[in-house]
Design a protein that fits this description.
Number of strands: 17
Low-confidence stretches: 1-14, 49-58, 227-237, 260-273
Largest sheet: 6 strands, mixed
Shape: elongated
Structural class: alpha/beta
Radius of gyration: 27 Å
Length: 470
């Protein structure tokens, strides 16, 4: 497996500022380890799905917009159809959930690409082929791992199952992918596709340790069952995405893999899942950090949030499964107090109690997300900012000693989302961290940034703000 999961494969460029609606859906299906995720990544031109020789890597269906043969489609990577199971095991339970998701995907797909592997058909191949009979008019068959003509003579044997044709490809090496792309779009109806400008979305990443209820919350927010929900730790591997609308705002949810200590990450697959979950934070606006209210906090929670703080993201702490706790106000206050001690530098971050399973507290969470995003997007006029700065400096003047003396000249907001300010001072090297912290806290309190992190940097200047305008 390539550890550079963000590597972009060679492929055509397209206008990412555009958005497309009413796209036909193409589902890639087949038994485990035939190369579905490799083909998905190849068609998408980036490493979106985790690939590994271990069977059953993909669990949740992953859906993305892709350009296939120059035409926009929704591409769906599904979990493998697996029959061989150890009865009563956790793995068997998970395999059944994955198969159910795959079969659900068939019903809504406009086209189904059945991916087979060159060689003799397996029992799983044959049973899945039989299940696909009702969908024959939407079916396209491709035999993978035939690079350089390898095992093509065996691949021809799949015609015995009544397919009008089969395509020989190599998802890994790119053999005959152009021919496959042409076949995939040949019978699809693109007349209903609408093109428009990219929609502004609030990107919300749901993070936390395994089994805290991330997928349950994601499914509730999006009104779907996109993420598999199970009490098996590490169920979610890829980042599962979904959209919904709330109070006129479009919200894009990213359900991530559970993040736990490195010492407990034993599988390569989980390593890449965790790595991708952390990298997802770079593309989020707001982080919903899920905590199992019954288990409480752990050191790993600090490490997760450290990544979010480093990116300047808004954070909401969510105490999930609160319906299982004592419902008196004192229990909640004591829990919040413990969290404030553990996250001493993040007293600004809201703490909410909810039940993702029952749906209680979800409305308050959504209102909080909108409020935090509004603060992240807030821009203060420079004139108003410096009037406020003058009041702050008057209330708490800088030190006047010979060694540590400095003057604050003016301040500008340099960025939103994340919010950053630049303070100009006569001797920036003399400005103490405590004074920067003072300005940061006053800005958060007085200027409408009460629930988000803000960055304050210092730069040298001997010119006053009013003189700078002349």
């Amino acid at each position: 497996m390539n550890d550079d999961i963000d590597e972009v494969l060679p492929g055509p460029e397209f206008d990412e500022t555009k958005t497309y609606r009413n796209l036909p859906l193409i589902a890639i299906v087949g038994r485990p380890n035939v190369g579905k995720s490799t083909l998905f990544n190849r068609l998408l031109h980036k490493r979106r799905a985790i690939t590994d020789p271990t069977p059953g890597v993909t669990r949740d269906p992953i859906e993305e917009t892709a350009f296939v043969n120059g035409k926009p489609v929704r591409l769906l990577d599904t979990g493998g159809f697996k029959l061989e199971r150890v009865a009563g095991s956790k793995e068997a339970e998970m395999d059944e959930l994955v198969v159910q998701k795959t079969l659900e995907s068939l019903k809504r797909a406009d086209e189904i690409v059945l991916l087979l592997e060159a060689g003799p058909a397996t029992a799983e191949d044959e049973e899945f082929i039989e299940l696909l009979r009702p969908y024959r008019n939407r079916l396209l068959v491709a035999v993978n791992k035939t690079e350089g003509g390898r095992r093509e003579s065996d691949a021809w044997n799949f015609l015995q199952y009544g397919f009008p044709e089969v395509l020989f490809i190599s998802a890994e090496h790119g053999d005959n992918i152009i021919e496959l792309a042409e076949a995939m779009t040949a019978k699809l109806d693109f007349s209903r596709v609408e093109e428009g400008e990219e929609e502004k979305k609030i990107r919300v990443a749901i993070v936390g340790k395994p089994n805290t209820g991330k997928s349950t919350l994601s499914n509730r927010l999006t009104g779907s069952n996109s993420s598999i929900v199970s009490d098996i730790a590490g169920t979610t591997r890829d980042v599962v995405e979904g959209d919904f609308e709330y109070k006129g705002s479009r919200i894009h949810v990213l359900d991530t893999a559970g993040i736990r200590r490195k010492s407990r990450v034993k599988e390569d697959i989980e390593y890449y899942s965790v790595n991708r979950a952390i990298k997802t934070l770079k593309h989020a606006d707001v982080v919903v950090h899920m905590i199992d209210a019954q288990e409480g906090l752990a050191d790993q929670d600090k490490k997760i949030i450290a990544h979010a703080c480093a990116e300047g993201l808004g954070v909401v702490f969510v105490l999930n499964k609160w319906d299982m706790m004592d419902q008196d106000k004192k229990t909640f206050r004591d829990t919040v107090k413990k969290m404030k001690i553990m996250f001493g530098q993040m007293e600004y971050a809201p703490v909410l109690a909810l039940s993702a399973l029952e749906g209680t507290g979800v409305k308050e969470l959504l209102d909080t997300i909108l409020r935090i995003y509004g603060q992240l997007s807030h821009k203060v006029e420079t004139s108003a900012l410096n009037l406020a700065l003058s009041d702050w400096v008057t209330a708490a003047p800088p030190p006047q000693g010979r060694v540590n003396k400095f003057k604050i000249r003016y301040m500008v907001q340099t960025q939103t989302n994340p919010v950053k300010f630049l303070v100009f001072a006569t001797r920036p090297e003399a400005v103490t961290e405590s004074y920067i912290s003072y300005i940061r806290n006053r800005a958060r309190k007085d200027l409408g940034f009460s629930e988000i992190p803000i960055v304050v940097e210092v730069k040298g200047s001997r010119q006053k703000w009013e003189n700078r305008l002349r």
